[in-house]
Design goal:
The complex is a heterodimer.
Chain A lengths: L1 E7 L3 E8 L2 E12 L10 H11 L5 E4 L7 H17 L5 E5 L6 E8 L3 H16 L6 E8 L3 E8 L2 H13 L4 E5 L1 H8 L1 H4 L5 E8 L2 E7 L4 E8 L11 H29 L5 E8 L4 H12 L2 E4 L14 H12 L10 H4 L4 H49 L3 H5 L1 H7 L6 H11 L4 E11 L2 E11 L4 H4 L1 H11 L3 E2 L5 E7 L2 E12 L7
Parallel strand pairs in A: 1-5, 3-4, 5-9, 10-13, 13-14
Antiparallel strand pairs in A: 1-2, 2-3, 6-8, 7-8, 10-11, 11-12, 15-16, 16-19, 17-19, 18-19
Chain B lengths: L2 H60 L6 H15 L2 E14 L11 E12 L1 H12 L5 E11 L2 E12 L7
Antiparallel strand pairs in B: 1-2, 2-4, 3-4
The chains are: A alpha/beta, B alpha+beta.
């Protein structure tokens, strides 16, 4: 299993790869703004020192200056790309050590109590100060006496953790855990802590800073981080000048360590330092160790306490310590409280949830009740109006009509319309044919019509097809149906002879009811 | 109050609220459904009743309780005058016959028939117009017999019209 550990510092990023507990790859990437961006006179000397050391590093990454973003943030994707290019293997888990500046370190003096109780008390204090209900933090025991116990608290704001996770996600790396350099360094000396009677001092010298950890058998007694100012000139060419610069730097480092040590001795006069460890990326660690041994009269060794087999292993002590603790399952991780923990037990969110659900229930209740009442009222009103109508109907004399309703409907249903018949006869009776007699009789709801017409008898009756045309008219009539065979006789009138045609037919009731 | 008890309280509250609301909604939904059905059936019944009432009103207008024959005869004269018929005469024919609307029904509540005889002279056109007007009178009437025959160069027509009424016994 390939575990990548990344330690982000102010101007550099260190990466270490652990394959099943064996450290197989380490690299330091330095960040440098492109050009002409550092106009700040106060920080100029320190910046030049970093530049002078980074020149030797082939993994120097230039970034475009942006005041709003961190240098490592800008160059991070390039770094990740370079790491993958170097290791040429997949990474199963990625862990991060954040810069010491992102950790809020505080000391707390509490009465003697269990670690759990102390943790609760410190949690409340940090929560009040940070206004975070579940602050990501850890505590480390510090010095103690008979009545009280001092604790170091390391608090990393949730927003910081989320920011780092976001940056790593943007580089397609999922962070498995996040820790602090203090925890990582303590983990690095876990194997020797049992042998510590008083305290051991660990000085990490890295890119212009000395980070000092005074560790005891069960915790951390003192932590301090101080910059040391290097030579103003970083472009010495002659060996004399180089040697002079190195001596000056050595002096500055020893001076800084002395300052830190004097702080420690003031704070803990009863706990003397047994031994000092030196580590860091500085190439001159042997000289520093020798000088420190002579100056402080202490046994001084170069970390790590347990060799890792890596080249430049002294520069990756916290990373190796974190890798070891991850392997042992003793690593201290910082993570934002999960959703279930944060939600919904905060006072505000709890009140919001209770209020919203109650309001939703009330809204549903009122809407349902409104609909129900409206319907109920409608039904009641309808029933009332129906019963009132019923009463009125009973009082009226229309019951006879109701009883005879069907018969009355049948009676008034349809009847023959005379006007249609008259219009038809007037329009369609052939020329030369005269209506003489018309007789209608209604019997058993069936209308019978007798039509008698006359036509002057002439020689061209055959040619004019007069009789046929009369019959066609009767056949096509929509008002007449089932006509009988015509009775045709010849009668004499005023010296003339006439044909008399008589037909009886049923009439079709065309009109609808009134 | 510990975190766990807060969580339990919230879950319990939400659970109770959900169960209560579900129960309430189910109950009310059933009642609302019943009311809607009732409303629909009542509305349907009311509409049916209204239609029946309208039909009754129409029938009452067509076949009134009283025979009101004189008023109808006046209407016939008016029609004849407007159509241009001559020698128009109207007379009732015997007493009203009763025709049972339902088999075996008593006298009260049975349709009564009133026959009216009409005679007039005119031409084909005036008779056609007269019959159109008669058939358009609001009071329901049926022409049961109609005879049109030539008479001295004109047409003589005899018409039998039937009127109907529905006498109602109100206990008066």
């Amino acid at each position: 299993m390939n575990t990548l550990i990344i330690h982000i510092r102010e101007t550099s990023l260190q990466a270490l790869l652990s394959t099943d507990g064996q450290l197989s790859y380490c690299r330091t990437f330095d960040f440098e703004p492109r050009t002409g961006t550092d106009s700040d006179e106060t920080g100029q000397g320190q910046h030049r020192e970093i530049h002078a050391q980074a020149v030797d590093n082939p993994y120097l990454i230039y970034y475009d200056f942006d005041e709003k973003r961190n240098p490592w943030d800008l160059a991070f994707k390039t770094v990740v790309k370079q790491i993958f290019s170097d290791i040429r293997d997949s990474i199963d888990a990625t862990h991060l050590i954040i810069p010491a500046d992102d950790v809020v370190i505080a000391t707390h003096q509490l009465p003697k109590m269990s670690r759990q109780d102390a943790e609760k008390m410190i949690a409340r204090k940090i929560s009040t100060e940070s206004r975070e209900e579940f602050p990501p933090f850890s505590i480390i025991p510090a010095a103690s006496d008979q009545k009280s116990q001092n604790w170091y608290s390391l608090y990393v704001p949730t927003s910081t953790l989320l920011d780092y996770r976001k940056v790593f996600s943007s580089a397609r790396l999922r962070l498995s855990s996040i820790t602090t350099p203090v925890n990582a360094m303590i983990d690095a000396f876990r194997s020797v802590r049992e042998a510590i009677f008083n305290s051991h001092a660990v000085f990490e010298i890295h890119r212009g800073f000395v980070e000092a950890y005074y560790i005891s058998a069960d915790g951390l007694l003192h932590f301090q981080r101080l910059p040391y100012s290097g030579s103003e000139s970083s472009r010495e060419t002659s060996p004399e000048e180089t040697e002079k610069a190195q001596k000056f730097k050595l002096f500055k480092i020893i001076d800084t360590i002395f300052k830190i040590n004097s702080h420690y001795q003031t704070a803990h006069p009863q706990i003397p330092v047994q031994m000092a460890w030196i580590c860091g990326l500085d190439s001159d660690l042997d000289n520093i160790a020798t000088a420190l041994k002579e100056a402080m009269g202490l046994e001084v060794a170069i970390a790590p306490a347990m060799p890792t087999g890596l080249k430049d292993e002294s520069g990756y002590v916290p990373l190796a310590g974190f890798a070891s603790s991850l392997q042992n399952g003793t690593a201290v991780g910082y993570s934002a409280a999960d959703l279930l923990k944060r939600f919904p037990l905060r006072k505000t969110s709890g009140v919001i949830i209770y209020t919203l659900t109650t309001l939703a229930a009330l809204l549903a209740f009122s809407l349902t009740e409104r609909e129900y009442r409206q319907l109920n009222n409608q039904v009641k009103q309808l029933k009332q109006s129906n019963s009132a109508q019923k009463g009125r109907n009973n009082a009226s004399a229309s019951s006879a009509y109701t009883k005879s309703l069907e018969a009355l409907k049948k009676l008034t249903a349809r009847q023959f319309v005379f006007y249609d018949l008259f219009r038809e006869l007037a329009n369609d009776l052939p020329d030369g044919v005269f209506l003489e007699d018309l007789e209608f009789r209604l019997k058993d709801d069936k209308g019978l019509l007798g039509i008698t017409a006359t036509a002057r008898l002439s020689d061209n009756i055959g040619e004019s097809r007069l009789l046929s045309r009369v019959m066609v008219m009767l056949d096509k009539s929509p008002t007449l149906a089932n006509h009988s065979e015509p009775v045709i006789t010849v009668v004499s009138r005023e010296k003339d002879r006439y044909l008399k045609i008589s037909v009886t037919s049923e009439v079709s009731p065309l009109d609808k009811t009134k | 109050m510990t975190r766990q008890s807060k969580l339990i309280a919230l879950v319990a509250y939400l659970l109770v609220l959900t169960v209560v609301m579900l129960g309430y909604r189910t109950n009310r939904a059933a009642k609302v459904k019943r009311l809607r059905t009732e409303l629909a059936s009542t509305t349907l019944a009311q509409n049916k009743k209204r239609a029946e009432e309208a039909e009754l009103a129409r029938l009452t207008r067509l076949i009134p309780v009283g025979s009101d024959t004189p008023a109808f005869m006046e209407s016939l004269y008016r029609c004849a005058h407007e159509s241009g018929l001559k020698q128009h005469e109207v007379a009732t024919e015997t007493s009203g016959q009763k025709t049972s609307a339902r088999p075996g029904a008593a006298d009260s509540g049975s349709v009564t028939k009133h026959r009216i005889k009409v005679s007039a002279t005119g031409n084909f056109r005036t008779f056609a117009e007269y019959l159109r007007r008669v058939q358009n009178i609001e009071r329901f009437n049926r022409i049961t017999e109609f005879k049109l025959a030539p008479d001295s160069g004109q047409l003589r027509g005899t018409i039998t019209v039937e009127l109907y009424s529905l006498p109602v016994n109100n206990g008066k």
